[in-house]
Every structure is written in C-alpha cells, then in structure tokens.
Amino acid sequence: MRKRLIVVFISGLLFVCFFLFSRSVRSGRWNGADFAVTVKIQERIDKASQLRTSAFLGDLMEGSVILVSPAVSTVAVLLLTAVASFDLKNRRLRWRGVLIPLAFAILVLAEVYGKTVVHHPAPPFFMIKNPTTHFPSFYVNEEFSYPSGHAARAAFLALVAAGLLLRRTRVRLRTIILLVILTSMVLFIGISKIYLGHHWASDIFGGVMVGSAIGLLVL
C-alpha cells in the first residue's frame, strides 16, 4: 500500500510539472532553447565523421518512430492488456489489466488537449528531414506539436512494460538489461523526433512527462 501511494504521488507530481511546463512553453520561454537544441542535434549527426554512419542513423531514426505510431501503439496496448489480464500460472483473470487501455485513452485525450490549448507550432519546413516523404504526414496534419504523442506513447508503453516485467522476472541482471533497453528506446525515439524535425525538445519533454504520469497510474 505504501509503495502504491508513493507511485501515485510521483504521478501527481509529474502532472503538476507537466501543467507548469506547458504554461511556460505556451509563453514562448523555450523557443530559443528549442531551436538551438534542434540545430545542434542535426549538425552533430549530419556532420558525422563517416557519411555512412550519418545515413544509417537517419534511416534508423525514421524507422524507430514507427514503433510508437498510433496504430502500432494500439496493438502494443492490446498485447500488454492481454498479458496483464490473464494469469496463466493460476488460471485466473486480473481486472487491473483493463486499466491499461483506459489509461491509453486518457493519454490520447491529454495529447489532443495539449495541442489544442498550447499553441506551439512544429519546427519550420526547412528543418524537416526528408520532406518529400514526411511533410504531408508529420507537418501539415499537426498544426501544433506540443506535447509529442510519440514521446508520450513511448514513455507510457515503456513504463507499463517495465511494470509487467518487474512482476514476472526475478533475475536481477535480466531485469536491469530490460529496463536499460526500454529507457534507451524512449531516449532514442525522443532524439529521433528532434533530429527529423518533427518536434522541438520541449515537445519531447512534455510528452515524456505526461506519458510517464499516466503510465505510473497503471503500475
């Protein structure tokens, strides 16, 4: 019970941070930092010592964001719900599994609300990588980009998956490895969205905060 209260407290704290951070983003306080971070990340990758490395990273980043697209995320949520709902060992159902799709629905509403209230335009067209392929999908359809839905879904899915793994995996080393992989995935997707010019850094931070806040409630 005590652990549960701590988790709920951290979740509530993240919600407060998200609210306050959203207000500062709306005021334009982070515009300069957003632009500088995007330029630095794009320059570092584009000017890599080996052009093959740069091209490979670019392709890998484009592919990684598909993992947390709305369609793929929905499938992942259904799979996680099935795993959380069915206890094969004891042959019984766990009602808490239904919290996962409910929380995911709340996450979608939070994303829509943020993009409606926080008027934070996406990066300009000249910053978008591969505009021929991605301009119609990622730029025109998202008039405002805060918070990043991809980052929010990545954080949410990572936390839910981590919670299920911690309950079922007793091997310490294996648990650590899996947690590192999930954390790295969230970071890589966040950096990818910035590099590709789909989101600002503040969009990513906001998405991770709200995704983590909602994800913690499911644990």
Structure description:
The protein is mostly helical and 219 residues long. The chain has one domain. The chain is built from 9 helices and 2 strands, in the order H-H-H-H-E-E-H-H-H-H-H. The protein has helices at residues 2-26, 31-46, 51-64, 70-85, 99-117, 131-140, 149-168, 172-195, 201-218; strands at 86-87, 92-93. Strands 1-2 form a two-stranded antiparallel ribbon. The protein is globular and about 55 Å long. Mean pLDDT is 85; it is low at 134-141.
Total count of strands: 2
Distance between the termini: 12 Å
| Count of DSSP-assigned helices | 9
Helix content: over 70%
What's this, in brief?
The protein has 219 residues and is mainly alpha-helical.
List the helices and strands and how they pair.
Elements: H1 2-26, H2 31-46, H3 51-64, H4 70-85, E1 86-87, E2 92-93, H5 99-117, H6 131-140, H7 149-168, H8 172-195, H9 201-218
Antiparallel strand pairs: 1-2
Transmembrane segments: 65-86, 98-118, 144-166, 173-194, 200-218
Domain Phosphatidic acid phosphatase type 2/haloperoxidase: 98-219
Keywords: Membrane, Transmembrane, Transmembrane helix
